[in-house]
Amino acid sequence: MRRILYTIGFSLVLGSSFYCKASSGEDPLVALLSSPPVISSVTPQIGTPTQNNINAVYSATEVVIKGENFGIDPVIRFNDVVAAISANLGTELYTKVPDGAYSGFITVSKSGGSCLPNSKEGANCAGTEFFIDCYASTNKQYGSEIELKQGQSLSVEFGSIETKAFHTDTLLGSRNLVIGCQSAVTVRVFSRSCQATDYVLQNDPVIPFPGGVATQFYITANAATCSLVL
Known about the structure:
Layout: H1 2-24, H2 28-34, E1 38-43, E2 46-47, E3 51-53, E4 56-58, E5 62-68, E6 75-78, E7 81-83, E8 85-88, E9 92-96, E10 104-115, E11 122-132, E12 146-148, E13 153-158, E14 162-168, E15 175-181, E16 185-190, E17 196-202, E18 206-209, E19 216-221, E20 224-229
Parallel strand pairs: 2-11, 12-14
Antiparallel strand pairs: 1-5, 3-4, 5-9, 6-7, 6-10, 8-9, 10-11, 13-20, 14-19, 15-18, 15-20, 16-17, 16-19
């Protein structure tokens, strides 16, 4: 009986020793390289690409991504748009919102990894939501944005040469914004990546809006009551 117990005990010790040696033989560098990156925070989580419009220039928002295991040569994307990295401090990555970026996901993938298009999923990939706001960079100089929903109409009072900021909800399909006003109006419409199109001094304009996105726009009128229909 003692011989049997001794044999069992010896086998357990030998097995444990073998397991420890096998585990300790794993290359920590290989383990680190094969582990996905981790994002703990993105600051700020709302920003804008460079805006160079007729009467205003706004710089691209600087973004700091904090986390770990970013690797030596990570890639930052805003959806499918690659962003330049100005500094990699190991646990912090510094970048700016690139031209063409739009609301969706900001992702970090390690060298050899990849993120699925317009997604935060993939191999050696980490991501979180990021929002493009074309108006926030102006410090909301025209006051709070007024929301115009699909199928809704609004009546808006303008003072003497006054500009107001608006945004739609996410449109299910392409729509026309129909403006009826007692004066000629100037309308600035932003694309989803904050490129502006201006409709200058038009009477009762009809302006196309794309489906699938929320659109931001300004209206400037002179002492008038304007109706907006979407």
